[in-house]
Design a protein that fits this description.
Layout lengths: L1 E4 L13 E3 L4 E3 L7 H9 L4 E4 L15 H25 L7 H18 L11 E2 L3 H19 L4 H12 L10 H4 L7 H7 L1 H11 L6 H9 L20 H15 L11 H10 L7 H10 L8 E4 L3 E7 L9 E7 L2 E9 L8 E4 H7 L1
Parallel strand pairs: 2-5
Antiparallel strand pairs: 1-4, 2-3, 6-7, 6-10, 7-8, 8-9
Protein name: HD-GYP domain-containing protein
Pfam families: HD_5
């Protein structure tokens, strides 16, 4: 499996995995030679990266953090429940939360069960799905990153559930934001941004009045845009005034926003998103949480083609857990010449470093 940008796909390339719509239907089959028409369709769908079959990487398999069944069920559940909340609010100017807690409790437990069995760093680039709305996939991705990080931070079962529920519902307040503002493809005005910022408090008010959802879980929605130096919203609180759950969500939220395709910009690769987190570590984000997060996610995803500082070129073949910035590389080219593939471990060869990624070059071109 090799990770490439959809813009770099060539005719007759074949996908390793099918592309799904959020309703579970297969949009593009795996192992079928791609035509230019299908490649154009992938690009139009907003899918930035895919895994293709490749001779050099034929034995490399990237495992899903959560199963395809769980991911599809999660997206459909989030979409259905958020729509019901929104419709009820429009009609009645109030929100019916009777089923909210029960439905999402079951879903979070299912996601937790999948993540607990995962023994590798987290990578979501291997999951190729097409969605009608960013908020649904973002809510799930933030939940996966959050639970994965909290697990490595040795959270108890109760804490994992609390923060998992808070993560999947952290943006529920956005259902109150007009769609034309939420999906605007140009710079927001000051007035529009002020409306967007109301989603944190709206989500908190909804969740704290929902039976069987704790106040701590509700605070995940309330505080995930707060920042250590007090520059966040809605309260502008700082430091220890921000709950630890919200500090974790802040990191997961920004990371997924950066690595997802948005209306106004293309997705970054994980190492680029991590640079943004590190730039804000200690001022915007908790430094220890950023450090732990960097060891939890795949900074250089398996299957990614990379360039090394000594002129070699290779593909990430394996991850070093807790040291994902130093993966194992399968080298296949040196100084522009093909060589018999062999592997080097960047954790052991400390003088070797990744300086560029082919997928990023493809985006820039």
């Amino acid at each position: 499996m090799r990770l490439v940008t959809t813009k770099s796909l060539k005719e007759n390339d074949t996908l390793c995995r099918p592309v799904y719509h959020e309703n579970g239907n297969v949009l593009i089959q795996a192992d079928i030679p791609l035509s230019q028409r299908i490649i154009n369709r992938l690009i139009k769908l907003g899918i930035g990266y895919v895994y293709i079959n490749d001779e050099i990487t034929s034995d490399i398999v990237v495992k899903n953090v959560v199963s395809e069944e769980t991911r599809l069920e999660a997206i459909q559940t989030i979409k259905k429940e958020f729509a019901e909340i929104s419709n009820h609010y429009v009609i009645n100017k109030s929100i019916n939360t009777i089923h909210l807690s029960k439905t999402f409790t079951k879903l979070v437990h299912k996601i937790l069960a999948d993540i607990k069995t995962a023994d590798d760093v987290i990578s979501i680039l291997s999951d190729v799905f097409c969605y009608d709305s960013y908020i649904f996939t973002h809510s799930l991705n933030v939940t996966i990153y959050t639970i994965g990080l909290a697990k490595e931070m040795k959270f108890t079962e109760k804490q994992l559930f609390e923060i998992g529920l808070g993560a999947i519902l952290h943006d529920v307040g956005k259902i109150m934001v007009p769609k034309d503002i939420l999906e605007k493809n140009s710079r927001l005005t000051a007035e529009e941004f002020a409306i967007i910022k109301q989603h944190s408090r709206a989500g908190f008010d909804l969740l704290r009045n929902t039976p069987n959802i704790s106040l701590i879980t509700a605070h995940c929605a309330f505080q995930h845009h707060e920042r250590l130096n007090g520059s966040g919203y809605p309260q502008g609180i700082s430091g220890d005034q921000i709950h630890r759950y919200a500090k974790i969500l802040a990191v997961a939220d920004v990371f997924d926003a950066c690595t997802s395709n948005r209306i106004y910009r293309k997705a970054m690769l994980p190492h680029e998103a991590l640079e943004i987190l590190y730039a804000g570590a200690g001022t915007l984000f908790d430094k220890e949480i950023v450090e732990m997060f960097s060891r939890t996610v795949a900074i250089y995803p398996t299957g990614l083609t990379v360039y090394l500082n000594d002129g070699r070129k290779g593909v990430v073949s394996k991850q070093n857990k807790f040291f994902s910035m130093r993966p194992i590389i399968r080298v296949f080219e040196h100084a522009g010449l093909r060589v018999e593939p062999y592997e080097i471990d960047l954790l052991k060869d400390r003088h070797i470093a990744i300086i560029e990624c082919e997928a990023r070059l493809g985006v820039e071109q």
